[in-house]
Write a structure and sequence with these properties.
Immunoglobulin-like; 3 helices; 9 strands
């Protein structure tokens, strides 16, 4: 009898784990040098809506939030759609001076995800981006600006 319980437990855990991760929705950041389309628009990062959904239906927005000469600034950014559904290129539209946080927000029906990445004179740091399926607090942005 114990053997059946031991065998059933891992199967149950695997079934529940699959349900927990099914339907995920997130933004994948990429190297613009890997895309001829992104290079054409001088992109600093590529963004791809991914997960169990229709990527073409995802709505992605970008905002640069920064500190320049002690003043906090916010700039709405334009994303260039790439030919792959749900893929975008972001070119630098914020001043080169100062420290910036790029906030990417994506919605697909009721699904939500967002990503924060830093940018400065050395470029965009996509390798240390923060992602979450709930909105970041202003304190999260403030922490990255310090």
């Amino acid at each position: 009898m114990r053997k059946r319980i031991v065998i059933a437990m891992p199967a149950a855990v695997l079934a529940l784990a699959g349900q927990l991760f099914a339907g995920g929705f997130w933004l994948q950041l990429g190297n613009p040098d890997a895309s001829a389309e992104a290079r054409q628009v001088n992109a600093v990062v590529t963004i791809k809506a991914t997960g169990c959904h229709d990527p073409a239906a995802a709505k992605v927005t970008a905002t640069a939030i920064g500190m320049v000469d002690g003043q906090r600034r916010s700039i709405a950014l334009k994303l260039d759609k790439l030919s792959e559904p749900g893929a975008y290129a972001l070119s630098q539209q914020w001043p080169k001076e100062g420290k910036w946080v790029i906030e990417l927000v994506a919605r697909n029906d009721e699904q939500f995800t967002n990503t924060l990445l830093t940018a400065g004179p050395q470029g965009v740091d996509r390798l240390h981006a923060k992602a979450d399926m709930k909105a970041f607090a202003p304190a999260d942005v403030d922490g990255l600006l310090k």
